[in-house]
Amino acid sequence: MSKPIPPVQKYMTTSPLSIGVEQTLAKAHSMMREHAIRHLPVLHGGRLVGILTDRDLHLVETLKDVDPTKTVVEDAMSAVVHSVGPDAPLDEVVSTMAEHKYGSVVVMQNGKVVGILTTVDVCRALAELLHSRLAK
Hints:
By secondary structure, the protein is an alpha/beta fold. It has a single domain (8-134), classed as CBS-domain. The protein contains four helices and seven strands, in the order ββαββαβαββα. The chain has helices at 25-35, 54-61, 90-100, 119-134; strands at 13-14, 19-20, 39-44, 47-53, 83-84, 104-109, 112-118. The chain has a four-stranded mixed sheet with strand order 1-7-6-5. A three-stranded mixed sheet has the order 2-3-4. Strand 6 and strand 7 form a beta hairpin. The radius of gyration is 16 Å and the shape is elongated. This is CBS domain protein AcuB. Keywords: CBS domain.
């Protein structure tokens, strides 16, 4: 008897931190360091408009004449964000992440960010699923 595929909401990080488009790169760095995270959904007026990763920050900050205390998140974020609903099947979401090399997927419900599924969350899910389904 096979078990059903769990939904993303079972493994996502709930209520992820986010940042506004007008915040500085220095603020984003500070948030990421303080909370040991690598992805920040970017909001404008409560609406998801992008994603900012530690890699985005590093890339932009290596450009000449970029001052992290004056440059805003909007200048470094990726405007294309892959999002899913909390009930999306984990296997489908993880397959899409692998195929497109996404480091995270934002989980949305009723137009609001309710979670984020990162590669770290996926590793935790894999460990749990392997343990519960194969270690018998």
